[in-house]
Predict the 3D structure of the following.
Amino acid sequence: MFDVYCSGHGSRVLMGMDSVRRLRNTAHGPEVEWRCSCGTTGTWQPHRGAGSAAKVH
């Protein structure tokens, strides 16, 4: 489980494994592409720390 800022909800939302669309390793660490139940998508980068904002697509 992880939480992200979802612009569709206007708040942080708890995500489970069913929200993961893609997981990839980059030169800067892992990135998780997610999709919220409201349809908003974004990228979570755990190496940026708990306070990092998600990049919304």
